Each structure stands twice: as structure tokens, then as C-alpha cells.
Amino acid sequence: MEDLFYTIDSFEFPADVQIIRGKLESEGIPVFLKDENTLNSDPLISYAIGGVKLRVYSKHKERALEIYNEIRAYAVDNRGNPIICPNCKSKKSEGYYVRKGIFLKLFPFFEKRKYKCLSCGMISRPN
């Protein structure tokens, strides 16, 4: 059954996935949201279960990823410029958080900001 579906990404809250879901469905790709109802009833357990998983049939994987990568938001600095990877110079990075320990899980805003390059996977800090 797992090979029937492909998980595109997971989102912290059910509302975060709705725009992408609408876009994929408008392109004729059936979308399935795993754990959406669970988080609608108790949003505080999002970290424990890994958020809402956006899933599509495996046969639609390539097209769904293409659409998702066109509309997803990439990390930008305070001036609105894209974060550039120091390794491969890609402009496709996203926020990266480890949240090790109970303190950072309770107060995630104390964790130093880091970014993960979606092209090469390097984790870096802004200057």
C-alpha cells in the first residue's frame, strides 16, 4: 500500500497545505491528506505525529513535484532576497530546525536560524 502513494511533503498545520492541495487538484492530480483530521481535532500534537502529510498516487509523483516546486515558498533574507547556498549557489533553501532537547521544543524561537539547501542538502547559517 505504501508504494501506491508518494508523500510530497508534510506541514505543521492543516491550513498550511490547502493552497497546494487546491493547485494540485486543479491540475487533475488527486490529493490525500494523512493525519489532517487528527490535527484538526488536536493541533498541539503536530510535532509528535509529523504534521499533515500531502500524498499523491505514485503515478502522479513527477508532475505533482513539478507543480509543488513551482509554487512553494523558499527562504528569503530580511530584504526579500533569496538565501543562496554557499556550496552550490542554489536559491532554493528552506528553514531548518533541529529542536533538540525539551527547551527548544517548548521555545523554538530561541534556536539559531539555519537553512537547508534543497539542491545539495547543505545546512548553513546566514551571515
Explained architecture:
The protein has 127 residues and is an alpha+beta fold. It folds into 2 domains: 70 residues, no CATH class; 55 residues, no CATH class. Helix content is 28%, strand content 21%. Strands 1-3-2 form a 3-stranded antiparallel β-sheet. A hairpin with a 5-residue loop joins strand 5 and strand 6. The radius of gyration is 16 Å and the shape is globular. The model has no long low-confidence stretch (mean pLDDT 85).
Provide key terms for this protein.
globular, alpha+beta, 5 helices, about 130 residues, 2 domains, single chain, three-stranded antiparallel beta sheet
Compact description:
The protein is α+β, with helices and mostly antiparallel strands. It folds into 2 domains: 2-71, no CATH class; 73-127, no CATH class.
| Structural classification | alpha+beta
Number of domains: 2
Percentage of residues in strands: 15-25%
The total strand number stands at 6
**CA-to-CA gap between the ends?**
45 Å
Instruction: Give the neighbour order of strands across the main sheet.
Output: 1-3-2
Helix fraction bin: 25-40%
